[in-house]
Design goal:
CATH topology of the largest domain: Aminopeptidase
Radius of gyration: 20 Å
Shape: globular
Strand content: 25-35%
Largest sheet: 9 strands, mixed
CATH class of the largest domain: Alpha Beta
Length: 302
């Protein structure tokens, strides 16, 4: 869908399923944010109901806001949320009201489809006039409760999203994925998941073939503490297995969990979390856990 705008630009709503149309999208994000999404675009992992609201000057995107469907489990209930991303205007086209125009159009679209909207931003004052409000995220720190299971013969297979066979394996796991949390769990974020893995090459992908689950984790900080980022599969491994995968130096070593740990067996305390990139989470609409401790995993950051 496209039309001519008062700014002598062409307005378009597109699902970006056509790779040719993603070329201008990749160019915009590279020029504005300095991030190359060409590898992600080439994967072709695009939900059918993704929508890019754009103003174009010929083949160049002058301004853009994307709306991505984000199915979630919130307090035990499955809901369909939306996630705004790719908000960008080229410098030459600023101060023309394009951002406000696009936001009005996106919200009119999203309000009929999604229970609430999420976005990450370093400039929350831009979005507050549109009904978005800041919400605090919390990571969780503590210890797994181990059962003394022998993990001597545990098979761990490292994966890479740049390997076609590994990519296919992970995509299969998404077809039966269980939410990582009943407090706030991702049901399906396949596209954003792979985008984050490509942008965060330091994340470790450990596949357990017997348990048929992917563990996403890393080791962070000067104290070298392991962080559990995400789990993708139909069922979770035991805490003993998780401890072995994450290379804990001792059975009772402390770990960080970057999502609500209600489906994990352990003792954890919530701590305020601020993303290294400075991104802050904002919400528009009813959000049942707004005043509870929660965090979207890094694999859902957008």
């Amino acid at each position: 869908m496209s039309s001519t705008s008062p700014a002598n630009l062409t307005f378009r709503i597109d699902n970006l399923l056509d790779p040719a149309k993603r070329v201008a999208w990749v160019s915009l994000l590279r020029d504005i944010f300095g991030i190359d999404f060409s590898s992600f675009s080439a994967l072709g992992i695009w939900p059918d109901d993704y929508r890019a609201f754009s103003y174009l000057d010929g083949d160049v995107i002058a301004a853009n806001i994307c709306c991505n469907p984000l199915p979630l489990r919130v307090k035990g209930r499955d809901v369909l949320a939306g996630q705004l991303q790719g908000v960008a205007t080229r410098p030459a086209y600023r101060r023309r009201g394009l951002f406000q125009d696009l936001m009005t159009r996106v919200l009119a679209f999203a309000d009929t489809r999604y229970e609430f909207l999420l976005l990450y931003t370093e400039t929350p004052t831009l979005y507050q006039p549109f009904g978005f409000r800041l919400v605090a995220e919390h990571g969780f720190h503590g210890r797994f409760r181990l059962a003394g299971i022998d993990v001597t013969g545990l098979v761990i297979q490292p994966l890479s999203v740049v390997e076609p066979a590994d990519l296919s394996l992970i995509r299969r796991l998404f077809t039966g994925r269980q939410p990582i949390s009943d407090t706030l769990g991702i049901i399906d974020n396949e596209g954003v998941f792979f985008g984050n893995l490509l942008l965060r090459p330091g994340l470790r992908l450990s596949y357990l073939p017997v348990e048929d689950v992917l563990v996403v984790w890393d080791i962070e900080g000067t104290d070298g503490r392991s962080r559990l980022i995400d789990l993708v599969g139909a069922a979770w491994p035991s805490m003993d297995i998780l401890a072995a995968v994450m290379q804990l130096p001792a059975p009772d070593a402390e770990v960080d969990i970057l999502f609500p740990p209600d489906r994990l067996n352990g003792t954890f305390s919530a701590l305020p979390h601020v993303h290294e990139e400075g991104d802050l989470l904002m919400v528009r609409g009813p959000f049942a856990i707004e005043h509870e401790a929660f965090m979207l995993p890094l694999t859902a950051l957008s």
